[in-house]
Design a protein that fits this description.
By secondary structure, the chain is an all-alpha fold. It is 88% helix and 0% strand.
Amino acid sequence: MAASEKARAKTEQAVGKAVQAAGRVTGNEKLIAKGRAAQAAGKARENKESLKDAGPR
């Protein structure tokens, strides 16, 4: 996995967790949903890069 893509995926997940936590503190359901979506996008990016690294079998 390219280091920059790995860092980007981890950053996206961390930002998502922070947004989700802020939504929980304020009781804002939209922020909670945005946080979950950002985490999911980061995990998807990480999985995509892992598949690239695995290569064809």
